[in-house]
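Students often ask why we bother encoding 3D structure as a string. The short answer is that it lets us treat folding as translation between two languages. Here is a chain of 209 residues written in the first language.
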Amino acid sequence: MTAGRGGWGPVLSGHLVRVEPIDSRLARAMLAGVPGPDLEWAPGFPLASVLDIARTIAAATEPLGPFLAYVTVRRLDGKAVGDVGFHGPPNADGEVEIGYALVPAARGMGLARASVELLVAWAQRQPGVRVITARVERGNVSSERLLEHLRFTCEGEHEGCSGSCSQAPPNGGGVRAFRYRAGEGASGWDRSFSRPSRTRSSPYSNSLA
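And here it is in the second language, the structure alphabet:
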């Protein structure tokens, strides 16, 4: 089921999770560290990795569009357990990059996979989106398996990271780039795009390790 929340993006519902856009009201609550009356938080929410983009959203005077940050809400108890979203709108090549993170106690239950699956399915239906990418730090096996299950393919590993990459491992380890390729019959999707994903500053940690 898909609903909308003004110009901030859709509300997407699945069996395990609900994905809601982080609007300015929620962003301010996240920065203050105090949940609002409409959404309870699991311990550890919000994660530090999403606070920078929360500051941008909180300061916005109008909606910033749907290709930004969302909160992952566990359907079982209605609590916010993490975030998922895009690093920005599609670029000139039709490429968008996704990120995701869960509080430690919510990992291993299929919630990240469910939230990413909802967002990927929505992105596939949007004009101008041809490729969906994600970056994962070396050794984050859980995150790699999540992406592979959703039919992302690993296109390579890049040693270290440029100065603009906020998620570079402190020991200089590699970052693996994953790219989503549409299945048979999905017209309009690029099935042979293999250029390495550009390194960008990210509000997400793709943290499931």
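Translate back mentally: The helical segments are 24-32, 51-59, 111-124, 141-149. Keep this in mind for the problem set.
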